[in-house]
Amino acid sequence: MTVIGIPKFQHFFRASAGLHVDKDDLKRYSGFLNRKLHDMLVTAQATAGANLRDILLPVDLPITKGLQQCIHEFQKLDADIGLLSLLEEMEVVPLTDLPLSEEAEARLPQVAGGLSVALAKAIRVLDPGLKAPHSADWEEAFGIMDLLI
User: What pLDDT sits at residue 86?
Assistant: First the structure.
């Protein structure tokens, strides 16, 4: 994560859930995004394989109704913040078996944005009065997200 991007990510967490995050929080967040996108790609690989395809399509990504709503919320927030371009630059752990179609690859930053909204909201739900999450708050939210995605 570039130093230039840190204020945008901080603005995003304030706008999406009223959370104040610091550099250490953003490192945790970046690791979370990488893990969850990788998990989603593993699931997408299984879906593509079950459909006898040798490439991952956007339809293979396991997007639930809730995550889709979070993606839409991210798109609205991003109009003011401009976070999408930073998410597009993030490196995702590649799959070893099946390549992503251009469309699926282009969809990943939006999915990352939706995951970001979902994570921020999960932290807020776990502790509605929280202003600045600590390590334990992040771990608790990661645990919830791991159960669902």
Answer: 86
Reported as a single tens digit per residue, the pLDDT across 24-39 is 898 899 899 999 999 9
When the pLDDT of each residue in the chain is averaged and rounded to a whole number, the result is 91
SS3 53: coil
Exposure string for 13-52, b = 16+ CB within 10 A, e = fewer: bebbbebebeeebbebbeebbeebbeebbeebbeebeeee
Domain that holds residue 32: 3-148
What gap in Å lies between CA 145 and CA 136, rounded to an integer?
Answer: 14
Cα 126 from chain centre: 18
The total number of structural domains in the chain stands at 1
* Residue 98 identity (one-letter amino acid): L
The two structure tokens encoding residue 46: 């299984």
Only one residue has tokens 């699926």, namely 104
